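Reopening this one. Same input as before:
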Amino acid sequence: MVSVSPANDRPASEALAIHLRGVSKHYGALHAVDGVDLDIPAGEIFGLIGHNGAGKSTLFKMMLGLVAPTAGDIRVAGAPIAGRGARAARRQLGYLPENVVLYDNLDGLETLRFFARLKGAPLSQCPQMLERVGLAHAGKRPVREYSKGMRQRLGFAQALLGSPRVLFLDEPTNGLDPQAIRDFYATLRELQAGGVTVVITSHILAELQERVDRLAILAAGRLQAVGSVQQLRERTQMPLTVELQVAEADRPAAAAALLHTTGVQPEVMATGLRLQCMREHKMAVLAAVAALGARARDVKLIEPSLEDVFFGFSA
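Same output, byte for byte:
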C-alpha cells in the first residue's frame, strides 16, 4: 500500500459545496467512517471509490443528513446538514440511491409528481425531467413495465427535481446501456456548467476515469488519497508502459539499442517491443525510441489505469 497523506488540491478562493472536518461514524467497535476531512468545490464532478465496506454508503448518508455522525462537522450547500436550517439545506440536494425502489402501480409521470410533492418542487418540472432522461415516450406507462435501465433513468429524473445544487449519485449507471451511459454523463456536464456539484460513486472505475474532475479513495473508513486521476497516478509512482511497433527483423537490434541506452530490458511482443519505466525516465526512453529512426514504426505510451491506481492506494 502506498502511504500518502490525503490532499484536497483546490484553490482557496473557490466556494465549497461540501465541507467535512473530522467526520466519523462508529457502531460500537466498528469505525465505519473514521476522521474524514474533505472539501469539494461548487461545480465539481467528484468521484468516491472504495471496496465494499470501505464506508462510502455511510459517508453518503451522513452528507445527506440521513445518518447522524458520531463526531465531526458536515456542511453541504453552505449550511450544516443537521440542526437549524437542515431542512432548507436538504432541499438543495438530489439523491439517486444504488437500488431504486419505485411504485409499480404508478406510471412514470405519476412517480415524478409523487416525488415532486415530497420535495416541494414544481409539478411543471415533471414532464421536463422525463424528456431530459429520455423517458417522455414512456411517461404514461406503468413502472412495472419499465426495464431496469428505464427504472434507473426514472430514478435519475427524480434526483433532478427541484433543481438541486448538489447531486449524490450512488452507482447511477447500473443497468444502463452504452448510449444511455454516454447521455447520462453528457447531462452531468450540462449540470456542471450550470454550477451543480456532483458526487458520484461507482465500482466501474474505467467509466469514472475520464469523467470526474477529482476523486477520493476510501478504505476502512479513512481517506487514502484525494486528487485528479493524474495527480493520483503520480503519487503512486507506478511505472509507465511503452509499446513500440517494430518490424520482426529489426526487433533484436532495436531491443539491444534500447537496453544499452535506457538500461531497461524490453519484452518482445507479437507486434514489437514493450518496456516499463518510471515517470521520471519517460523522456529519456522516448528519446531512445526516437533514435531508432525508421526501425520504430509506432509508439504507444500507456498510463496506469484508475484501477491500477486504486489498488496501489488500497491494497
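So the earlier flakiness isn't reproducible anymore. For the record, The first helix runs from residue 56 to 64.
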